[in-house]
Task: inverse folding
């Protein structure tokens, strides 16, 4: 269905999200654990959907998303975060789910924002 | 003698006003005759009789020293005798005794009387009772001394009180200040200057105070001062300051308005305290609380991932329950290592020990672990701990540890290649049943191959030779 970029510095969670979106139709998946790596991977291959953590060991998810969309244009984004509920993304079109996420909710949200096959 | 006394009495002229005055005055007066032996009294007036209690007939013809007694000062008597011997007038206060023995203070004046030819003819003396006056003077002196002592005591108390107050202010890290109104003239104590990082020997002006306040906090401070001066509200405010040395401090200021008698504002006065430690602790606590929330959410997400994936691979509910419990326990053990070695990371030896603890038999002979002390980053710590857990679980179920003779050798080393430190880690099972590669990829294998490989940025692979399962990592560290 599409190519997905997962930006998440916790490898266990990243792997789990990868399996969920694979089961939901993602064809290829790139993973990045820091802001720089995320930007480099997205520019090397433009993702159809970005699933990003907010706080990373190096840099932040929102900063990575802004840098990517500044060059590659708008891309559907889903933040999966451990941040407080007060966190609001830059654009209202960006979805936010709070950890720990119900697997079915993550899959449903991913399907809702992913471009139709 | 009696003839001399009588002669003197006869010589008195009742029409002489001086002599009438002599007789009538309330001042005691006597005359003695030094031409007779022992200079006896030849005349005393009625006032003298009243003063001393001696009737004239009892004392005329006697030297007047009969008035001296045991309480009379010996030095005063010497002074009196010398004056008489030298024929010069003298005035002194002498403690004399009345006829009944009671003492009284006698202000005595004695003067010689000379004839025309210059020869000494009489001594005339006056006596005034000054006991009450002397007593009053004495009392006044005592009162003055008592007052002086009391003032000294109060001065000492005040000094001690001030010293205690200064000490308390210093111990409490408090400074005091006064802002005179309406001129806005600031007077700051040494403690206050210290809090604001000002030199103690120099004045600290209101303008300098305003300049020291953080620009973001200045409008709020000015508004608070205005409210206090205009409405008399208590002044209680916390703001940030920047010292001349450039460090930021938090200060707390409390003050109140003083008024003149006519009700106009006289001054604002109060305390200042450095509350930086409390403020920074509050900020630190907020950061920690946020970090803790974040970690808890991530941990729950990780547990969710473990459970979810374990359930997907499980062949039965019992199998799933056992696997989930084991995996969550191994996550817990890894977390403990992370917290213990938050700063420098955990060592491989510790990670191996902790991960294999639940699988060791009584003598621990089934695992042989060797390697130097190498510390790993938190991500790799967690990944390696989980990988070891999966390997051990599989070894017990299907591998070397499923038979009594089976053993596992765990070895690691650091090698320097091309100027790079490379870690080699190996899990090797031997003396177990012949190995057949698994037909499906389980949770453990997937984790090792997909995740650990990414994180160690080197090689991580499981091999299934017939002699025993081998798991190898090669990574730059």
Result:
């Amino acid at each position: 269905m599409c190519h997905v970029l997962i930006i998440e510095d916790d490898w266990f969670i990243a792997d789990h999200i990868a399996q969920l979106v694979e089961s939901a139709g993602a064809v290829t998946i790139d993973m990045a654990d820091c802001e720089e790596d995320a930007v480099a991977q997205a520019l090397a291959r433009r993702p159809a959907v970005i699933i990003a953590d907010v706080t990373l060991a190096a840099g932040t998810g929102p900063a990575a998303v802004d840098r990517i969309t500044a060059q590659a244009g708008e891309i559907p984004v889903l933040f999966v975060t451990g941040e407080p509920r007060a966190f609001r993304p830059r654009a209202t079109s960006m979805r936010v789910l709070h950890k720990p996420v119900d697997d079915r909710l993550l899959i449903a949200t991913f399907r809702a924002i992913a471009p139709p096959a | 003698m009696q003839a001399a006394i009588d002669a003197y009495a006869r010589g008195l002229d009742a029409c002489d006003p001086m002599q009438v005055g002599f007789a009538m005055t309330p001042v005691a007066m006597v005359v003695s005759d030094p031409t007779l032996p022992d200079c006896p009294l030849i005349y005393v007036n009625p006032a003298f009789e009243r003063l001393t209690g001696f009737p004239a007939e009892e004392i005329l013809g006697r030297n007047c020293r009969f008035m001296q007694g045991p309480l009379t000062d010996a030095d005063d008597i010497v002074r009196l005798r010398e004056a008489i011997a030298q024929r010069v007038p003298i005035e002194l206060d002498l403690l004399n005794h009345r006829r009944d023995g009671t003492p009284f203070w006698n202000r005595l004046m004695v003067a010689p009387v000379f004839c025309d030819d210059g020869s000494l003819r009489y001594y005339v003396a006056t006596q005034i009772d000054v006991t009450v006056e002397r007593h009053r003077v004495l009392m006044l002196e005592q009162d003055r001394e008592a007052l002086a002592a009391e003032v000294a005591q109060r001065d000492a108390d005040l000094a001690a009180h001030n010293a205690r107050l200064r000490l308390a202010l210093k111990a409490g890290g408090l400074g005091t200040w006064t802002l005179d109104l309406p001129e806005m003239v600031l007077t700051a104590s040494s403690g206050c200057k210290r809090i604001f990082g000002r030199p103690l020997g120099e004045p600290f002006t209101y303008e300098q105070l305003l300049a020291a306040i953080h620009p973001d906090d200045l409008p709020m401070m000015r508004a608070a001062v205005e409210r206090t001066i205009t409405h008399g509200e208590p002044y209680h405010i916390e703001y940030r300051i920047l010292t001349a040395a450039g460090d930021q401090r938090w200060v707390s200021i409390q003050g109140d308005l003083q008024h003149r008698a006519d009700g106009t504002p006289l001054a604002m006065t109060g305390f200042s305290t450095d509350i930086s430690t409390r403020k920074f602790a509050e900020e630190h606590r907020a950061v920690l609380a946020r970090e803790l929330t974040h970690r808890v959410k991530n941990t729950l997400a990780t547990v969710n991932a473990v459970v979810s994936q374990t359930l997907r691979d499980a062949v039965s509910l019992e199998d799933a329950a056992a696997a989930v419990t084991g995996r969550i326990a191994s996550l817990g053990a890894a977390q403990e290592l992370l917290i213990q070695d938050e700063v420098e990371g955990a060592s491989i030896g510790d990670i191996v020990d902790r991960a294999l603890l639940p699988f060791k038999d009584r003598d621990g002979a089934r695992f042989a672990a060797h390697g130097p002390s190498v510390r790993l980053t938190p991500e790799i710590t967690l990944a390696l701990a989980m990988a070891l857990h999966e390997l051990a679980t599989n070894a017990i179920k299907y591998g070397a540890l499923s038979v009594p003779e089976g053993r596992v050798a765990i070895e690691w080393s650091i090698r320097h290649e091309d100027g790079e430190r490379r870690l080699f880690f190996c899990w090797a099972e031997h003396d177990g049943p012949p190995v057949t590669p698994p037909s499906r990829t389980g949770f453990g294998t997937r984790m090792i191959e997909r995740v650990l490989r990414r994180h160690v940025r080197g090689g991580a692979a499981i091999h299934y030779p017939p002699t025993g399962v081998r798991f190898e990592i090669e990574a730059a560290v």
User: Anything to note?
Assistant: Chain A has four helices and five strands. The two ends of chain A are 5 Å apart (CA to CA). Chain A touches chain B through 23 residues (CB under 8 Å).
